[in-house]
Amino acid sequence: MKITDVKGTLLRGFPPMGYAMSFDAVFVRILTDEGIEGHVITYLMGAFEFESALPRLRSLLIGRDPHEYEAISNILTFGLERPGTVASAIDICLWDLIGKYHQEPIYRLLGAARTRVRAYASAHKYDTVSEYVDLANRCQAQGFGAFKIHGFDQADADIELCRAVRAAVGPDMDLMLDPYMAYSRVEALRVGYVLDELDFFWFEAPIPDSDVRGLADLCRRLKTPIAVAEAVYQGLRAQPKYLTDTTAPYLRAIGDRTGGISSLRKSAALCQAFNVYFEGHSYGPTLIQAAHFHVMLSILHCEFIEIPVPLGVFDVGMKDIITIQPDGFVEAPTKAGLGYEVDLDLVADATTRELSPT
């Protein structure tokens, strides 16, 4: 199997109207001489970024075997401070191709560790406490046993919000808070003590990831576990200090920014060596969720798959979507590659333009 071309299509207006946010996405395709295609729809990479890289991508990829993903990844990321969204999208497409070529879901090629992972609902931002409470209740009714709050990013307002959501869902739903590095150390402690009282499952990115000493102090002083390193876009090379210099039990990583599946599996192995949970950031379009999910299925030291809610908001252009079982778990896909098929007709309807070199 040899690569014959790399293509990209700009898709505007994801997710559907009526959601709290919208974004553009790029549908990346890698074509081969055997008629197999590798796909990913990604929203962190812009059209200009992809178009600028397209000549280099074509010169690097055309004529190569997708199994050479490690060599390709090294070339795409060599000398860069950040592996970047382009390298990540290409890596995910290569793994999709490899899985389809071998007629296996990717996680089985990585080494299957399990066939299902527990899910948590990951909410976007809302304007009022009542909106968060209503969504948490809906998610609980849909089978989710865990719910993550992206709150108001103000300590006192977030304390009120967390108390309201806990009161609404009761003690049996696991809750997380992610202010995405919005707090000072003092504010993080004030919120953290309340999360201890409310029995939250984890406290994610309470202060900037660059403040490693502050994160270490929070780990010492709070009962609620701290989740760190999501904003570390250098990926594997920048993660060791969070494992050696803090006692955070959860390390986060964004595979569609830090090198794709190849990078995620290495970060997961690093976490395993330190007896730390590896929690991939699977928030995004269906195939981005899937890329992280396959790594999660190939390891045991991961608690959750992160699922954007309301359900369906990121599933535009897909024939298959990730679904939640009544017990709050997600079952492994059975189709080859990423395991979820793009509906090319729907994508064609949503296409703004084909991307070409700038």
Written account of the structure:
This protein has twelve helices and 13 strands. By secondary structure, it is α/β, with parallel strands linked by helices. Strands 4, 5, 6, 7, 8, 9, 10, 11 and 12 form a nine-stranded mixed sheet that branches. It has a four-stranded antiparallel sheet with strand order 3-2-1-13. Helix 2 runs antiparallel to helix 3 and helix 5 runs parallel beside helix 6. The longest helix has 19 residues.
How would you describe this structure in keywords?
alpha/beta, Enolase-like, domain 1, TIM Barrel, nine-stranded mixed beta sheet, four-stranded antiparallel beta sheet, 12 helices, 39% helix
What's a quick, concise take on this entry?
With 358 residues, this protein is an alpha/beta fold.
Please render the helix and strand layout as text.
Elements: E1 3-14, E2 23-32, E3 37-42, H1 47-61, H2 69-77, H3 84-102, H4 106-110, E4 116-123, H5 129-141, E5 146-149, H6 155-169, E6 174-177, H7 185-198, E7 202-204, H8 212-221, E8 226-228, H9 240-244, E9 250-253, H10 260-273, E10 277-280, H11 286-297, E11 304-309, E12 329-331, H12 344-350, E13 351-355
Parallel strand pairs: 4-5, 4-11, 5-6, 6-7, 7-8, 8-9, 9-10
Antiparallel strand pairs: 1-2, 1-13, 2-3, 4-12
Helix pairs in contact: 2-3, 3-10, 5-6, 6-7, 10-11
